[in-house]
Amino acid sequence: MAYTVYLKKNEEKRLIAGHSWVYANEVARIEGKDKNGALCTVCSFDGRFIGKGYINHASKILVRIFIRKDETDDGDFYYNRIKEAWEYRKRLGYENCCRVVFGEADNLPALIIDKYADILVIQCLSLGIHQRKKQIIADMVRLFQPKGIYERSDVAVRTKEGLPLEKGLLYGEVPDEVIIEENGLKMSVDVKNGQKTGYFLDQKENRFSIRRYAKDGRVLDCFCNSGGFSLNAALTAKEVTAVDVSPLALDNVMRNASLNGLENIKTEKADVFELLREKKSAGEKYDLVVLDPPAFCKSASEVKDAYRGYKDINVLGIKLVKSGGFLATCSCSHYMTLPLFEKMLSDAAKESGRRVRVAEMKMQAPDHPSLVNEEETQYLKFFVLQVL
After folding, report:
1. Which terminal residue of the chain, N or C, has fewer Cβ atoms less than 10 Å from its own Cβ?
2. Burial of 342 (0-12, 13-18, 19+ CB in 10 A)
3. b/e 156-179 (16+ beta carbons within 10 angstroms → b)
4. In this predicted structure, what is the pLDDT of residue 346?
5. Within a 10 A sphere around the Cβ of 273, how many other Cβ atoms?
6. Cβ neighbours of residue 258 closer than 8 Å, sequence gap 6 or more
7. Helix (H, G, I), strand (E, B) or coil at 356
8. What is the pLDDT of residue 301?
9. CA distances in angstroms from 124 to 23, 114, 159, 333, listed in the order given
10. How far is CA 184 from CA 89, 132, 206, 231, in A?
11. Gap between the Cα atoms of 329 and 336, Å rounded
12. How far, in Å, CA of 111 to CA of 165, rounded?
């Protein structure tokens, strides 16, 4: 007999509004008997049907709801859901590279599928999705006919599901280097060992927008990774300095610059915090400074320290901008909420002693849509500030 999960009184409101996650401490009782990872039914305290999802007794997120009607995950279920997600991306003009499936936002919680030219990369981030990987791979092959599919389920969140970290070839052949085209630029992606699934696809539109602010100027791109912002800036700037602590990242920047015939990019290996202080002390000034750091907080308990870190680099970034120039600054942590990020920018502007105004604010690219009632899906903040 399948599991039926009954919630405590009034715990259904968030789920009815569209949120996917049922936390273990929100549950009054569980009836029935089934395997861990099985599809179960979620009901309100008084027995009203809420939805269905995979159960995992080892996780604080007991159930991730993804079925809201009286249906099951049998047959063509995954094929149809992935196809629907892909049709949305194609409608927006994505083709060569994009996030095809973005978990909860595509009603497939804990499933990530990224497309890099004719290579697909998958992440299975929950027990239920992990158990159905074979079916999902078969549906991906049927829908896309890719050259290869690679798994990058080597992320720490899997441990919270009681799952080991895994990576490797799942289908066909996957080269060490995949060449994609983004914003008219060629980019080399290492899906096997690069960060996340190989590349940060969520900044595509933001990287394109940087071109107008870099025009004819001197640019400092901090936490440059493989050079997405650097290359877009280099198309219009006089010179670009790409900074990262990783030698591999800087090698990637120069590889990508070479692919596009760009000769106005140089790299510096350095800790960004230290480098910004050194450049300030040396009296350096830039027309555009880009700050795209990794997530400074991956849990609510880290927000205070993260706030100080974000404020520190933004104060320094503002001070390095010429009068009339720009600071492009980001946060990719959903714990650093938009209101909190805006407050941090306000504090940083005050501490810098400069007048600052907002030129542009954006979020993650449309192939990473967010749900209005599931704040965890809205995570990226991107601001362009003019320093007066």
Report:
1. N
2. middle
3. eebeebebeebbeebbeebeeebe
4. 97
5. 15
6. none
7. strand
8. 86
9. 19, 12, 12, 20
10. 18, 36, 14, 11
11. 13
12. 15
Burial (CB count <10 Å: 0-12, 13-18, 19+), residue 353? exposed
Residue 59 pLDDT level (bands cut at 50, 70, 90): very high
Contacts of 177 (CB under 8 A, 6+ apart): 188, 189, 190
Residues forming beta bridges with residue 148, ordered by sequence position = 119, 172
Place of tokens 């992440």: 123
- The string of DSSP codes covering 273-307 is HHHHHHHHHTT--EEEEEE-PPPS-SSGGGHHHHH
Which residue, chain included where needed, has tokens 């640019």? Answer: 219
Query: Rounded to the nearest 10 degrees, what angle do helices 77-91 and 133-144 cross at?
Result: 50
What does the alpha-carbon distance between residue 388 and residue 328 come to, in Å, rounded to a whole number?
14
Residue recorded with tokens 């569980």: 30
Q: Is 175 helix (H, G, I), strand (E, B) or coil?
A: coil
Q: In 3-state terms, what secondary structure has residue 360?
A: strand
* Residue 29 near residue 49, CB atoms below 8 Å: no
On the CB side of 341, how many CA atoms lie within 13 Å of its CA? 22
Specify whether the backbone of 185 is left (phi greater than 0), alpha (psi in -120 to 50) or beta.
beta
Encoded tokens for 303: 């927000």
Tokens of 340: 């909190």
DSSP character string of 113-182? EEEETTEEEEEE-SHHHHHTHHHHHHHHHHHH--SEEEEEE--GGGGGGT---EEEEEEE---S-EEEEE
Angle CA 72–32–4, to nearest 5: 50
Query: What pLDDT score was predicted for residue 293?
Result: 94
Pair of tokens at residue 153: 């389920």
Burial string for 42-75 (b: 16+ CB within 10 Å, else e) reads bbbeeeeebbbbbbbeebebbbbbbbeeeeebee
Q: Residue with structure tokens 């901008």?
A: 321
**From the CA atom positions of the chain, what is the Rg in Å?**
22
Report the chain's terminal Cα–Cα distance, integer Å: 67
Element (H, E) at 137: helix 133-144
| pLDDT per residue as tens digits for the range 265-280 | 999 999 999 999 999 9
Give tens-digit pLDDT for 188-232. Answer: 999 999 989 999 999 999 999 999 999 999 999 999 999 999 999
Residues noted as catalytic: 332
Residues 225 and 249: their CA atoms lie apart, in Å, by 5
